[in-house]
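Backbone Fold Data
Goal — fold tokens
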Amino acid sequence: MEVVRRILLPAQRRVLIGATILALGRALGETSNAIVGSLVLCGLALLFAAPIGVSAGIYLSEHGDGWVGRVSRFLSDVLVGVPYIVLGYFGYITMVIHLGWDFSLLAGAITLAIMMLPYIARISELALRAVPRGVREAAYGLGCREGLLVLRILLPTARAQIITVRCNMHRLFSTGP
């Protein structure tokens, strides 16, 4: 019975999701492929860019006072200044032509993640730096190690600012499949 449940339930979910997308396609007409493609592309790009960007923001806010922090902030600012068409062309040349991926969702998602990365890193850094110094000192005074401080105190405190920026990321990018 367990084997039947493991095999049939995912198949039923796929049928349900497929039927939902078909019903959405009938309701929206010809634009459903573009809408679903954009949502999948942006979701996959955010899945790639969010962990790297938040990790970079954590590093820059906690240890970014040295030359590595200055260089990475400078490179982030340079990447923000590059026009999106140039980044798209770079993604096309490297992933579609050179690596032979054709026109794939992965190539578009990686290119879009490269576009999102400096914004997420900078916003995460600023959100984590906005946490009061007294909160950090209190955690250190209670014997909290640095990793625990970041995961249990700083990230939950700055979560609202980071998520708000991620939810408004669609204003920064006008993308399509």
Notes: Confidence is low (pLDDT under 50) at residues 3-9, 11-16. Residues 32-63 form the longest helix (32 residues). The radius of gyration is 21 Å. The chain has one domain: 39-171.
